[in-house]
Amino acid sequence: MPNSEIARIFLEIAELLRLKKDNIFKIRAYEKAARAIGELKLDVGQLVAEGKLKEIPGAGEAINKKIIELVNTGKLDFYERLKAEFPEKESSVQGKQ
Q1: Helix, strand or coil for residue 86?
Q2: Which of 5, 35, 61, 76 is the most buried if burial means most Cβ atoms within 10 Å?
Q3: How many CB atoms lie within 10 A of CB 33?
Q4: What H or E segment, with its residue span, contains residue 1?
Q5: pLDDT, averaged across the chain
């Protein structure tokens, strides 16, 4: 999965968490991780394979686990469950693609 796609998913997670009025620090963590991943020169898949996810600035253990899931499976259960909470948001996002 390309870095740009992982970054997009994390930005959307941040947006959905904001709609849920979740913890602002959690929202900012996803935004920061998305920016860092978007700016990486290396492929995130390579960092996963080499066990070097700690090189992504601001990505803690929870976000690293989500990156690994995305890279290994191509999907993220947390993201899918979050989208399901906002079916009207999901249909508007699909229209953009």
Answers
A1: coil
A2: 76
A3: 26
A4: none
A5: 90
Domain ranges in the chain are 3-96
55 pLDDT higher than 60: yes
- Using a 10 angstrom Cβ sphere, with 0-12 exposed, 13-18 middle and 19 or more buried, the burial of residue 66 is buried
What top-level class would CATH report for the domain 3-96? mainly alpha
Angle in degrees, CA 30, 11, 82, rounded to 5: 85
Q: What is the pTM of this model?
A: 0.86
Report residue 97's pLDDT band, with 50, 70 and 90 as the boundaries: very low
Residues in contact with 94: Cβ distance below 8 Å, sequence separation at least 6, in sequence order: none
